[in-house]
Structures are given as structure tokens and as C-alpha cells.
UniProtKB/TrEMBL annotation:
InterPro entries for this protein: DUF4777
Region (Disordered): 82-146
Species assigned in the record: Drosophila madeirensis
Entry protein name: DUF4777 domain-containing protein
Pfam families: DUF4777 (PF16007)
Record-annotated DUF4777 domain positions: 1-66
Compositional bias ranges of the Basic and acidic residues kind: 112-122
Length: 146
């Protein structure tokens, strides 16, 4: 089954110059590529539906047509997407700022506590094997592999 991308569909719709049904689009592609209509109908339909979902195509009365795109419309869409991606900075209220200032004296206690936690974490990362059975003797000399 051939794989169709949006460029083929866009080119076909530009070639037809009018809104077209799935059958007309498949027929036009089949005529220009010498592929059987049966083989390309399903992937063309999937590509048309994806183009419709993404906003490149519209469908009215069973006919697909290209959405007119201008440079300005593309730029405004890109700017709108950029604005939604960036979260707005959170402003702290005056009360929150005051509570952080009063915690200055306890910051030394907090540092000591974090140092203790780090030390415990470092100690827990030491070897997990604490006992070796008497049958297994670990030697420091490495034997050569032949």
C-alpha cells in the first residue's frame, strides 16, 4: 500500500482548482501516478482526514478544499502557539515575601538538616554486600584469562 503525504494531496487539489470529493482526488492521483484506485483510496482518505484535523484542509458537503494560507496568518498562528507554551510568571504576594524573610534564622538549621540527609544518603550508597560466605574467598590477585 503506497504511503501518501500531504504534499501530494495539496498538489492534487491545486491541480483540480475546485473542492473535490475523495473519489475525484483518488481518480486524479491514480491517473497521474499509474497506481490502482483501490490501492490508494484508504491512504488518501487517511491523509485527507489528517489534513482536516490539522487545519490545512476543510470539508463541506463531502468535498475537500485547501484552507487559504497567507504569511500573516501563519505568523499569527505561530505567535499564538508561542504564547500558550510560555507560562506566565507567578508573582509572590507581600505576605509570602515576609514569611521568607523571617525564616532567615532557621536557614542554618535547615542546612544542617540537609547535610545530615546527604550524609545518610551517601552512607546508604556504599556496598550492599556486607558478608561473604566462607566458601567464596575473594582474592586481590587477578588470574590471567587464557
Amino acid at each position: 500500500m503506497p504511503n501518501f503525504n500531504g504534499a501530494i494531496i495539496v498538489h492534487t487539489l491545486q491541480l483540480l482548482k475546485l473542492p473535490a470529493t475523495l473519489r475525484q482526488i483518488v481518480n486524479t492521483i491514480s491517473t497521474h501516478t499509474d497506481l490502482p484506485e483501490k490501492a490508494i483510496k484508504k491512504p488518501v482518505k487517511q491523509t485527507l482526514e489528517m489534513g482536516k484535523r490539522l487545519g490545512f484542509l476543510q470539508k463541506m458537503d463531502g468535498r475537500y478544499y485547501l484552507v487559504p494560507m497567507t504569511f500573516e496568518s501563519l505568523m499569527s498562528e505561530m505567535q499564538a502557539l508561542d504564547m500558550t507554551d510560555k507560562p506566565e510568571p507567578k508573582l509572590k504576594s507581600k505576605k509570602e515575601k515576609k514569611t521568607f524573610k523571617s525564616e532567615g534564622s532557621s536557614s542554618k538549621k535547615q542546612l544542617k538538616l540537609t547535610d545530615k540527609v546527604k550524609k545518610v544518603a551517601d552512607d546508604s550508597q556504599t556496598s550492599t554486600i556486607t558478608m561473604v560466605p566462607s566458601e567464596l574467598k575473594v582474592s586481590s590477585k587477578h588470574k590471567a584469562v587464557k
